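Appendix B. Extra example for self-study. Work through it before the problem class; the solution is given directly after the inputs so you can check yourself.
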Amino acid sequence: GDSVTQMEGPVTLSEEAFLTINCTYTATGYPSLFWYVQYPGEGLQLLLKATKADDKGSNKGFEATYRKETTSFHLEKGSVQVSDSAVYFCALSLVKTGGTSYGKLTFGQGTILTVHP
Amino acid sequence: AAGVIQSPRHLIKEKRETATLKCYPIPRHDTVYWYQQGPGQDPQFLISFYEKMQSDKGSIPDRFSAQQFSDYHSELNMSSLELGDSALYFCASSLIPRVSGELFFGEGSRLTVL
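Solution. Structure tokens for the complete assembly:
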């Protein structure tokens, strides 16, 4: 079946450190890929997305590139801030033939990021 | 901008009781999804509706049922509650499943079963 695997967590960094959270996927079709972020006590917010191979999604200094050859979508940020502390979920959504998405998201297990001043 | 509204935000029930969660999608969104997130776990897809018809089904227990109404809001009904049903329940909405597959999530309803 379709699945998403994230790096083991949690991740603890100092402010201004470089962040990488690894994400790999298996899918029977051609997925769209996402990173969602969940701040404490809040719902899931879309951070960035990519819909085809070699696309780069970016938002708020975060970036991720859709790598079909390695089935990966690693999240990176050059300089993290305390406010980036949250849980990060990698997710995929399968695209139907014809281009409309099934809609259902399959999530990875989440990575807790804690950034210290 | 209007977001997905879920109610109640918190709910405490006893075992074997019933609970109903409500979800109001973003205006003009016609697809609703329900997810269950246990403590420290990733969200698990339960069920989805498109234009008031069930469009996909995931790991939803037989004790649970859901529907989407004419105004596109959705309700998740849970009966014979068990301790393991304690979780955060998310509703998400989208406007016709698009190529990008982006979903917009509510803040969740936290159910505690005692």
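Self-check: The interface with chain B takes residues 32, 34, 36, 42-46, 49, 51, 89, 93-96, 99-110 of chain A (CB under 8 Å). If your reasoning did not lead you there, revisit section 3.
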